[in-house]
Amino acid sequence: MVNELAPVGTIADLFAPEPATWGLRGDPYVWRSLRTMLAKRVLPTSERDLVEILRSSFRWLTGNDLQDTSTDRIYREELARGGMTSGQVDLEVWRNVLIPLLVERWRIVAPVGSAGAIGPVGAAGPVSPAVTQGPASHSSR
């Protein structure tokens, strides 16, 4: 039986287009790695499942849990490509801008009746419905 409420596509579809700006230089590499990693993962039918998939995939790629607020940035040598913040990933931007952006994009493609808002994405607070364009207003560090 086909689930009529299941969104069509993969989680990777939510990653296009890329945000216009990033927090730190490692962020676009994590974004692209997540997109590749989730290319064959069908869109989940609930926001809660999407957030858990994104959190666990982020944790697997970076070794860092987005719910751990003891730091706001991490360094990953494999992401270092040159520059002052090379290899650094801005956890605050992931918690407050990038993950909420992906959730908002899911909300747009999810059929009516899919399980919606779940509250906090991370320890940073709830997903804001106003996040639709990406982090264009966030300056690069």
Topology:
Elements: H1 27-37, H2 47-62, E1 73-75, E2 88-90, H3 91-109, E3 120-122, E4 125-126
Helix pairs in contact: 1-2, 2-3
Word description of this protein:
The protein is mainly alpha-helical and 141 residues long. It has one domain. It has helices spanning 27-37, 47-62, 91-109; strands at residues 73-75, 88-90, 120-122, 125-126. The chain has a two-stranded antiparallel sheet. Strand 3 (120-122) and strand 4 form a beta hairpin. Helix 1 crosses helix 2 (47-62) and helix 2 (47-62) packs antiparallel against helix 3.
Characteristics:
141 residues, mainly alpha, two-stranded antiparallel ribbon, 3 helices, 4 strands, disordered C terminus
- Helix and strand sequence: HHEEHEE
**In what range is the share of β-strand residues?**
5-15%
| Unreliable runs | 117-141
Mean pLDDT: 80
Work out the count of structural domains: 1
Class from secondary-structure proportions:
mainly alpha
Strand numbers in spatial order across the main sheet: 1-2
Characterize the biggest β-sheet: 2 strands, antiparallel
Distance between the termini: 49 Å
| Radius of gyration from the alpha-carbon trace, in angstroms | 15 Å
Count of DSSP-assigned helices: 3
Q: In summary, what is this structure?
A:
The protein is mainly α and 141 residues long. The chain has helices spanning 27-37, 47-62, 91-109; strands at residues 73-75, 88-90, 120-122, 125-126.
